[in-house]
Amino acid sequence: MLCAGNPELAELRGCARDFLSRDSAEYGWVPAVDGWLASWDEAFSARLGDAGLLGLTIPSQYGGRGLGHLHRYVVNEELLLHGAPVAAHWFADRQVAPALMAYGSEEQRRSLLPQMAAGRLYCAIGMSEDGAGSDLAAAASRATRTDGGWLLNGRKLWTSGAHRAHLIVVLARTSPRDPARRHTGFSQFLVAPDAPGVTVSPITQMSGEHHFNEVVFADVFVADADVLGEIGNGWQQITTELSFERSGPERILSTAPLITGVLQELSDNDVGAPLAAAVGNLVAQMASLRQLSVSVANALADGRDATSRAALVKDLGTKFEQQSVETSADLLEFAEGAGAHRTAVVGLLAAARLHAPMFTLRGGTNEVLRGIVARGMGLR
């Protein structure tokens, strides 16, 4: 497990904290809620890579450090707790790099992994579609054989960061749909957003923020060298990728800068027993979910299937994140004080309220995730 007494992990955590403290002081970034989605800072990602705090699980021959998933976990935990601007590199480091290591060709690994470890290659994930969000087996995008490669046609929605990414990993059908075997016939492709036939259009939130996109593929040529893994093995590949996506600390700590800010405000107040109990409950939930998340990291590190547990982390974790927003708002009312810190916390609360509806949607709705858990238990 992820023990505080592990000296190697403790040293790495200390290095991450020192880096974040120095970097924030020098470059002036401030903690943000949902920073892994909303705070895109390419220069920060490059500095993180230069500091050796990216690509931790990527083997050294591909520019990484060749460490384990728990090493990556503690660094990401610190990044999220500090609300650092990590969105530029997040998807590449979280799931595209592991997919390349597991399924990619040697050429793809040598070309892409060093740039990811350096924090200088940004990826988007082209899975969800209109009518096939959480039910990815209903995806209608198709790739058909042509000389030297494939012609890709289709439309992806909610593709985070596609307008800034160097690469989109696209899930598409490469054989006709079989109603009796809905999960067969999928493949994955590495597609440049500026390739001929690709159109990226913004989906702007009511707040004015732009993270999501609609991406349309119209007869986009994808060379055989840009197929990720094996043709027809796409579903098996994304099942593993989704375990990384759904189980990480970002499913628990999106609101961590808000929670820690509120707790700091309360620390200067004489709180009564009911308020102390509410704080204890909040922290206990976070600690329990963290242990569940770490258990999935251990399973993935050992090469074990973690599909059901990853879905459980995402379900419980994102519900906790939503509930933590209003709990934090209630607790903040009891904190007397003013000044720059309180102003910052109030700003974090406003941002968290805008983002909270997304927590239980992205990465699979909770209803679909519960179906995955039920199947894993043999109940469906």
Automatic annotation (TrEMBL):
One of its GO terms (cellular component) is plasma membrane. Its cofactor is FAD. Pfam families: Acyl-CoA_dh_M, Acyl-CoA_dh_N. InterPro entries: Acyl-CoA_DH_CS, Acyl-CoA_Oxase/DH_mid-dom, Acyl-CoA_Oxase/DH_mid-dom_sf, AcylCoA_DH/ox_N, AcylCoA_DH/ox_N_sf, AcylCoA_DH/oxidase_NM_dom_sf, Mycobact_Acyl-CoA_DH. SUPFAM superfamilies: Acyl-CoA dehydrogenase NM domain-like (SSF56645). Its EC number is 1.3.99.-. It comes from the Bacteria. GO terms for molecular function: acyl-CoA dehydrogenase activity; flavin adenine dinucleotide binding. It is an enzyme of class 1 (oxidoreductase). Residues 124-220 form the Acyl-CoA oxidase/dehydrogenase middle domain. Signal peptide: none annotated. Residues 8-119 form the Acyl-CoA dehydrogenase/oxidase N-terminal domain. Keywords: FAD, Flavoprotein, Oxidoreductase. PANTHER family: ACYL-COA DEHYDROGENASE (PTHR43292), ACYL-COA DEHYDROGENASE FADE34 (PTHR43292:SF4). Belongs to the acyl-CoA dehydrogenase family. This is Acyl-CoA dehydrogenase FadE34. The lineage of its organism: Bacteria, Bacillati, Actinomycetota, Actinomycetes, Mycobacteriales.
